[in-house]
TrEMBL record:
Organism: Leptotrombidium deliense
Name by which UniProt lists this protein: Caspase-8-like protein
InterPro entries with a match to the protein in the record: Caspase-like_dom_sf (IPR029030), Pept_C14 (IPR002398), Pept_C14_caspase (IPR011600), Pept_C14_p20 (IPR001309), Pept_C14A (IPR015917)
Gene3D superfamilies referenced in this protein's UniProt entry, alphabetically: 3.40.50.1460
Domain Caspase family p20 per the UniProt entry, residue ranges: 238-366
Any one Gene Ontology molecular-function term assigned to this protein's record: cysteine-type endopeptidase activity
Length: 424
């Protein structure tokens, strides 16, 4: 894209703020000079098009000569529509393209996603294809306007990329127990939910877990009576919904998950204590997971809820730098798909409300580096011992108990376990 006449604008739909990322204007006239322009818009929902002869509201030096509004679609379909519409354009017209996208930070990178098919939208690649298919646009002045739908969401992972999940045979996943403890004490401005989670993450070094706050503008508290612009108050009087999907059985290439029923109980008890309505699903295939969640995101009854918590207890991995969550059939959905699915623009019923995703499960086989090599070898040996299809509860004598203490945790089984020693 050398020697082009191009301007790219990004507008945040919630704050009305605008910024330029790419500005390579070469031969545009001064602001007081009037130009003609043609505009094609791809909003998420069909709206009114610009009338001929009116000034373009985002640049009043441009008078609209022609305009077209089409429903947002896939990249290839949009390029085809542009190609058909641009065939008879005057090369002196300013080409204006408007599109609604979803944007959020992933690490240090701000990425855009197509709200129609929830795929990553590469601006540079789109421009390359646009010029390749419409050579007369190469030297034509171009303005690309992206109306960005931000996402207000809290994402919690029970472990970090590449690492195993820490699970107790008695207490379920350690993270679900931490989550339950944090909800008990997140009642004030000073002690909101994120504050307590960060305290655990910083001080409880044997359990690394990940917290992602995507444009989270307000802290989350439970039990505060007064309302404030800085906090989401999820007291007992507010209506709240929790969806728990518990996947335990997987194909042979993925390890079976154990003790997930206790993990489910931890989340259910913690949230029902705060009057969440909990709906549980067990062993869903990938397609069933997606159908359940996409149907939920489009459900207008969500308007009556102030908060949604989606908990996925399953196996996850990172594939080509994308986080994925598996269904029981071995197929997966990506975290990016879920994030876009519950964006403010796509899930209007929860716009501006609390949206929380919790993924509880292993994301690999690695053990945190604070353990010695000897500890890690011991953990691997114990993991192989217990990761079998043979039940340790078969053919046991009366009054039998087995307690194995490792750096990874305690494995306890048998039919005679001193409860007082393992009270949790």
């Amino acid at each position: 894209m050398h020697n082009t006449d191009l301007l790219v604008w990004y507008y945040c739909l919630t704050t009305a703020k605008m910024f330029n990322e790419l500005n390579e204007i070469k031969n545009r006239p001064r602001r007081e000079m009037i130009e003609t322009g043609v505009c094609i818009s791809f909003p998420l929902k069909i709206g009114c098009k610009y009338e001929k002869g009116t000034k373009y509201p985002r640049d009043t030096s441009i008078v609209i000569r022609d305009s077209l509004v089409c429903k947002l679609s896939s990249t290839s379909e949009m390029l085809e529509i542009i190609h058909d519409f641009a065939a008879n354009w005057n090369t002196e017209d300013v080409f204006i393209l408007e599109m609604t996208v979803t944007g959020f930070d992933e690490g240090d990178v701000f990425n855009l996603y197509n709200n129609y098919d929830k795929t990553y939208f590469d601006v540079n690649n789109f421009l390359h294809l646009l010029i390749e298919q419409n050579s007369h646009l190469k030297w034509q002045p171009k303005i690309l306007v992206f109306d960005v739908c931000p996402i207000n969401m809290l994402i919690l992972w029970s472990t970090t990329r590449g690492y195993a999940n820490r699970v107790s045979l008695i207490a379920g996943s350690y993270f679900s127990d931490i989550f339950r403890s944090c909800l008990k004490t997140s009642h004030s401005c000073e002690g909101h939910l994120l504050y307590h989670l960060e305290e655990f993450r910083l001080n409880y070094h044997q359990l690394p877990f990940q917290i992602s706050t995507i444009n989270l503008l307000k802290h989350i508290t439970f039990g505060r009576e007064e309302k404030t612009e800085l906090y989401h108050n999820l007291g007992d009087e507010t209506k709240k919904l929790c969806i728990i999907i518990n996947n335990e059985n997987f194909p042979h290439n993925l390890k079976k998950k154990y003790m997930t029923s206790k993990t489910v109980e931890n989340y259910e008890v913690a949230l029902e204590r705060h009057n969440f309505e909990c709906r549980k699903f067990t062993n869903l295939k990938c397609s069933d997971m997606w159908e359940t969640l996409s149907t939920l995101s489009e459900d207008e009854s969500l308007k009556s809820y102030e908060a949604l918590v989606v908990i996925l207890i399953s196996i996850s991995q990172t594939i080509k730098n994308k986080d994925v969550i598996y269904g029981t059939d071995g197929e997966y959905i990506t975290m990016n798909d879920l994030i876009v699915l519950f964006s403010d623009e796509y899930c209007e019923s929860l716009k501006g409300k609390v949206k929380m995703l919790v993924i509880d499960g292993p994301r690999g086989e690695k053990i945190p580096a604070n353990r010695s090599e000897e500890d890690q070898q011991g953990i691997k040996a114990i993991s192989e011992l217990f990761d079998t299809s043979v039940s340790h509860l078969k053919n046991m004598p009366n009054s039998f108990s087995l307690n194995v203490n490792t750096a990874f945790g305690n494995f306890v089984t048998g039919n005679c376990i001193p409860i007082s020693l393992y009270d949790h």
